[in-house]
Amino acid sequence: SEKDKRYSVVIAGGGSTFTPGFVLSLIANEDRFPLRKLKFYDNDAERQKKIGDACAIIMKERAPQIEFSYTTDPKEAFTDVDFVMGSIRVGKYHMRELDEKIPLRYGVNGQETTGPGGMAYGMRSIPAIIEIIDWMEKYSPNAWMINYSNTIAIVAEACRRLRPNAKVINICDMPVAIMTRMAHICGLNDYHDLDVNYYGLNHFGWWKEVRDKKTGKDLMPLLKKHVSENGYWIGGEYDKETEASWAETYKKAKDCYALEPETLPNTYMQYYYYPQYEVQNADPNHTRTDEIREYRQKIVFEECARIVKAGTAKGNIWEASAEHSNYIVDICHAIAYNTHEKFFANIPNNGAIANMDPDSVVEVPCWFGADGVQPMATGMAGRFQKGLMEEQQACEKLVVDAYEQHSYNKMWQAFALNKTVPDALVAKKILDDMIPENKPYWPELK
Ligand code: NAD
Ligand code: LMR
Predict the structure, then answer these.
(1) Average pLDDT over the chain, rounded to an integer
(2) Residues 6+ apart with CB under 8 A from 309
(3) What is the pTM for the complete model shown?
């Protein structure tokens, strides 16, 4: 029966730094989201093997009842699956480094999903995500893809246009990560304890209401006070492991809030409100990519090597932190069991934000169930937010235009229009440096 159903999951991007943590979360949630099969798929066999061999040991020790394998063969990967997790990074950290460092040559912000770097990354991701959707539809037509491969806003716009009927949901954990901080600030446990009204685009949004889910109490006054003084920074034990750049980001929310104190901002607004500050504070030779190479990536691959060498995963670094409530597991669970819980997704607007285009992609709370996602009506966007969103959304649409039409000018316009870029000549210089580097991934722009 449905009740006893066990699910088959494939992680596309098996070599991702997030994979082992996710595997531990899946195991920790076996009671509410039981698996029969777990597969990894990646197009880099060598990178995936390092993660896969360690995870094979974890699975053997902790969940021998689940059949585990990893592969680079699409047919093997996407046959007999219920859920596809999209966790790929096209061009890997080599290309992320260029996304960050090329704009900085010209005094423009270098960031993974923001500005020219984010648009370059989005352009690389489109064909790879479409390819995965097509394999899923071919080999497992009933499956759902939960995609969190960036640049989500651009990928979601490409899905809307190119695969409008595909069972793909584009998500991001930034709102829930901030909400877990909000919950802590209010003396609650995590994002499950909050009921919110939030609207915007991916990495570009605002909370207009935050309530205690149980009591309905309005938490905005308390949160506004905290954010006006500390941003989303908590400090102490809570932030013991927070990396330097994230510490700055959470603190900087204070300045974002100062500009628009009726709502609470997504942390990514810092790049659009204060681009000059971001550039002045950046080291053009040492960006977030370097920090990840020195920290997360190093830790993950060293730990995998240690597990393989020891032949046991006992005492591994993910065990202690394997959150019992992992956001992606929550989402799979909601779809599998038709719970209609409220999470966030990037979906065609269709009225979710009353005064935005129906055919624009927005990020809003949605009810997740067996039929996919149903967006919540969030009301009207403020004038300030609407102006910002329409500019940013036009950039995202122009990138997809550039992809579809192989148009140099559309991509140049996307860069030139972006709030992080001061003028069209700077936009052109950045684009012209990016084109040869992105040759293996982008269509040829004419
Ligand atoms: P990573 O580079 O560590 O791993 C990505 C993997 O994708 C690599 O092993 C790479 O070989 C593989 N890959 C690249 N192109 C592929 C393709 N066409 N087909 C199959 N596999 C391919 O990256 P990461 O830092 O772990 O991030 C993974 C993704 O998750 C990124 O898109 C990132 O932006 C996104 N992300 C998600 C969350 C989240 O909510 N969990 C948070 C931050 C980032
Ligand atoms: C990541 O790889 O972690 C990013 O997607 C976000 C960040 O930390 O820069």
Answers:
(1) 97
(2) none
(3) 0.97
The ligand placed nearest to the CA atom of residue 326 is: 1
Q: Which residue, judged by its Cα, is nearest atom 4 of ligand 2? A: 112
In sequence order, what are the residues at sequence separation of 6 or more whose Cβ sits closer than 8 angstroms to the Cβ of residue 427? 116, 412, 415, 416, 418, 421
The closest of 433, 430, 396, 365 to 125, measured between CA atoms, is: 396
Q: Which tens digits make up the pLDDT trace of 303-320?
A: 999 999 999 999 999 987
ipTM for the whole complex: 0.96
**Is the distance from CB of 379 to CB of 365 less than 8 angstroms?**
no
Instruction: Note the ligand closest to the C-alpha atom of 172.
Output: 1
What is the number of other CB atoms lying within 10 angstroms of the CB of residue 220?
17
Strand order in the sheet with 341-348: 67-71, 35-41, 7-12, 83-86, 144-147, 168-170, 341-348, 361-369, 372-375
Cα separation, 35 vs 38, in Å, equals 7
Catalytic residue positions? 173, 268
| pLDDT reported for residue 268 | 98
More confident residue, 194 or 241: 194
pLDDT of amino acid 361: 98
Report the distance separating Cα 12 and Cα 441, nearest Å. 18
Ligand 1: list residues with CB < 6 Å.
Answer: 12-13, 15-18, 42-44, 47-48, 87-90, 92-93, 128, 148-150, 172-173
Q: What is the pLDDT of residues 425-440, one digit of tens each?
A: 999 999 999 999 999 9
At 104, the pLDDT band (50, 70, 90 cuts) reads very high
DSSP characters over 224-273: HHHHHHHTT---GGGGTT--HHHHHHHHHHHHHHHH-TTSEE-GGGHHHH
Rounded Cα distance between 308 and 286, Å, is 31
**Cα torsion through 368, 153, 294, 440, rounded to 10:** 120
Task: Tell me the CA–centroid distance for residue 150 and ligand 2, in Å.
Answer: 10
Which DSSP letter does residue 380 get? P
Q: At residue 271, what is the residue type?
A: Y
